[in-house]
Amino acid sequence: MTSPCIDIHSHFFPKNAPNFAAKFGESSGPWVTLHDHSDGTGMMMLGDKPFRPVHSALWDAQARIKELDANHVETQIICATPVMFAYDAPAEQAAYVASAYNDLALAMCADSSGRLRTLAQVPLQDSALACRELTRAMRAGCVGVQIGNHVGPREMDDEGIVAFLQHCVEENAAVLVHPWDMLGGERLKRWMSAWTVAMPAETQFGIMAMILGGAFDRLPAELRICFAHGGGGFPYLLGRLENAWHRRDIVRGISLHPPSHYLNRFSVDSAVFDPRALRLLVDTMGADHIMVGSDAPFPLGEEHIGDLVRNQPGLTEVHRQQVLTENARNFFRL
Amino acid sequence: MTSPCIDIHSHFFPKNAPNFAAKFGESSGPWVTLHDHSDGTGMMMLGDKPFRPVHSALWDAQARIKELDANHVETQIICATPVMFAYDAPAEQAAYVASAYNDLALAMCADSSGRLRTLAQVPLQDSALACRELTRAMRAGCVGVQIGNHVGPREMDDEGIVAFLQHCVEENAAVLVHPWDMLGGERLKRWMSAWTVAMPAETQFGIMAMILGGAFDRLPAELRICFAHGGGGFPYLLGRLENAWHRRDIVRGISLHPPSHYLNRFSVDSAVFDPRALRLLVDTMGADHIMVGSDAPFPLGEEHIGDLVRNQPGLTEVHRQQVLTENARNFFRL
Description:
Two copies of one chain form a homodimer. Chain A has 334 residues and is of the alpha/beta class. The first copy, chain A, contains eleven helices and eleven strands. In chain A, helix 3 (91-110) runs parallel beside helix 4 (127-140).
């Protein structure tokens, strides 16, 4: 019998997204829309440019549930596709957009017989507005919040972002950090390297900002925070960082302890696509800090959700059950 | 008894560097110079700005040999500190600079009773000049060449760089690829993140360019090429790339095979600073494709050269000897 899993990292986009260009003017945005090809496929559009080919599981709860059944996914947590964040828009626009998307995500969940739950998005460029939308969204039924790993030059140790994370603790909201707005510019446009090179670098840098920028030192241990894609490059490059921390003062920032000290302060998902990488992840983070994350329904996600964990050699059954379901239940209070 | 090792990744800067500003004019450069504090320490300068605090093992063969003895390093291969590359300078200037530095590196080796060997640097922005200097430097006694992983927007699959690598095969020159000119700009200046985040990303991208850009497909299997710092993020992120290669056509570039097919086409050094990362490296690359590389004498290098490999649990003695000495002897024809 195939063990069920809880998938904590998947994305949605609403079929009938509000027309933000009509509301905020043609010079606003660009905003994301969906061209539904009515054959089970579609194209996400950014302004008038094709952004990504998609299929109906992205927006249709019933199509999504078929995929969950086929993959033995008991519960799946959905969240915004990062291009929906609107962190570059005026904060009031981003707050409106977040609220609209959050309600549409909750509507998709309401159509799922309890199989789908959702994370909120917030206007992270404005800490007060972000806190307000988080409170509203949690009361409306979200199980946590997804944020990007930075807002322009403001990293995870930014005062406003730390204040928002403190608010998440107070609201009992779990946090998923997703890489976005990737470094590397023109060079990394080849071969989707923004996804394969820059996203893991962004996530690594986000974790480093929490550590070296003193955010973990300032925030309480109750903060439940998870980084996508197996923590990006962080777990493999921890040794390089740890060595540098001990040997060069300018690496240390304002952290009170070396990087390895903070490994019990965050979780990661299992989206590493290779048993050798998952082994390093288990050895580094511990099985109690890893949850299944598929990145579904996008093609760069795990095709057979949870199978990497189900088939992982050398994992005890206790640890396997932690990663497949138990950690997620505790982390998101499901 | 401590097993000796061969260290294939270490850097030098000559104590008495030529005055390139006097030769090429004050508007040229900036060039690298050394302020020797005459107390065993010094400061590398880039133009008139401090670049990096250093100590005399960087320029003094006798000081270096003391460190080799203390670390049970039988032979160490030195190469330029990447800031010496001059890839941004006019090609004729870079050719002159490479030739001058190569002769000074060979002079440092000549003062080492055979303990030090050197890799050449070349003006990689001009393939013809790079080939000419490689030929000259190999005949003068270099054991191979170090190149940066890109020249501005020209990556490892660039026609001129592939032509140069073909010339390396013909000249029997081993190649070490070192990350440099790191992506990430202002954001990654914090906490030396250019070294801890961007360097591994550059190296990963360099390996990807060889694969997805078809360079490995065009070059013969005889090419001996090694990537620094344990292949950067590549080994850990291979699963993410492999999954993407199979699932999105735009990831594949012009590669004939999936990324994992090319793992036997290159080597990496062992500079990962953590036994869990080294285990992933051995599991992914195979012990026959890893050589000790310390990044000495810089502070972000391995403090006790070779000890990570010497103390690695789970490594067979056959594999340990391969990584400590045998692979390097074969790779560099020592």
